[in-house]
Amino acid sequence: MKESIKTVKYNFHIWVDAIAFKLSMEIQTEIYKAIADVDYQKLQAEFQAQNELLVVENFLPNSMIEKFLALLPSLQPAINRNYIPNHKKGGSISRYSLDSLAPIFGEFYQLSAFFEFLNKITAEKLLPCPDADPHTYALYFYTEPGDHIQYHYDTSYYHGKRYTVLLGLVDDSSSKLEYQLYKDIPERETQTRSLSLTAGTLVLFNGDKLYHRVTPLGENEQRIVLTLEYVTDTRMGMLKRFVSNMKDAIAYFGFRQVFRS
Ligand SMILES: [Fe+2]
After folding, report:
1. From CA 47, how far away is CA 171, in angstroms rounded?
2. What is the pLDDT of residue 7?
3. Residues of the chain with pLDDT under 50
4. 215 near 142, Cβ under 8 Å?
5. Quick one: which of 251, 254, 31, 36 has its CA closest to 148?
6. 30: closest CA among 79, 73, 72, 63?
7. What pLDDT does 11 receive?
8. Which residues are CB-contacts of 162 (< 8 A; sequence separation ≥ 6)?
9. How far apart are CA 224 and CA 234, in angstroms?
10. CA-CA distances (angstroms) from residue 144 to 30, 62, 83, 127, 162?
11. N or C: which end of the chain has fewer CB within 10 A?
């Protein structure tokens, strides 16, 4: 009897592994398709001209968006809600919860094809964040009226640069990603622009250069975003790691997630 339970468990693991492998092959193929027709010269020029910001509408194929959307209902209990008066209101799910509940997001983050794309646009050799960073990949849920985040930089606490990727998954909202280009360059005039992060839209920017906010969500609206973080140097001083963790605990994922053992 014991043997048969063992066998069933073993077969179940093989089955789960086979499905996970098939899924990861599928997303690899889909991302290759998504970047196959990219005009790198044009996008690199846009990225540089906008002080290291790039926006690509319809970047994610629908088939991939659907794979992500199918997982959202099961992730509902893992959403951590935050409210910091005059700064931020909204929900988030950390990489740790995604790793246990929806590993496809972590697989997407690691895709070599996607790294290739990002390296070419940024002209950097980007690295994944260390396991200790709960913000490596995460989901943001704007689901209640007034959900927003005030103007901020995605400051790099790492020794090198930090790049943020935002990918729109759901946007039934009037919320805008509003940003002030060139704010960090004293001799240039700041330009304020905004965009809707529609499903499939990719936004890539240098966190220390783009001053940005998300305007408040209206009634009966929702906006769900996948965020990915890449760096040029994975080292971070202990004090900065502490500050970064405190920020993530208070403003995003809660203390239990961030300071889990
Ligand atoms: Fe941000």
Report:
1. 24
2. 75
3. none
4. no
5. 251
6. 63
7. 73
8. 154, 155, 156, 206, 207, 208, 229, 230, 231
9. 28
10. 32, 26, 11, 34, 29
11. C
User: 133 alpha carbon to ligand 1 midpoint, in Å?
Assistant: 15
**Å from CA of 153 to ligand 1 middle:** 6
**φ and ψ at 18, to 5 degrees?**
-65, -40
pLDDT at 25: 79
Can you give the pLDDT at residue 16? 60
How much distance in Å is there from the Cα of 7 to the middle of ligand 1? 48
For the chain, the domains span: 2-258
Place of tokens 């077969």: 11
Q: How far away, in angstroms, is 150 Cα from ligand 1 center? A: 9
CA 227 to ligand 1 center in whole angstroms = 9
CATH 2.60.120.620 fits domain 2-258: yes
CA of 213 to the centre of ligand 1 (A): 7
Would you state the structure tokens that stand for residue 237, as one six-digit string? 């001083």
Expressed in angstroms and rounded, the spacing between residue 25 Cα and the centre of ligand 1 is 30
Question: With contact defined as beta carbons under 8 Å apart, do 213 and 178 qualify?
Answer: yes
Whole-structure pTM value: 0.89
As a whole number of angstroms, the distance between CA 206 and CA 162 comes to 6
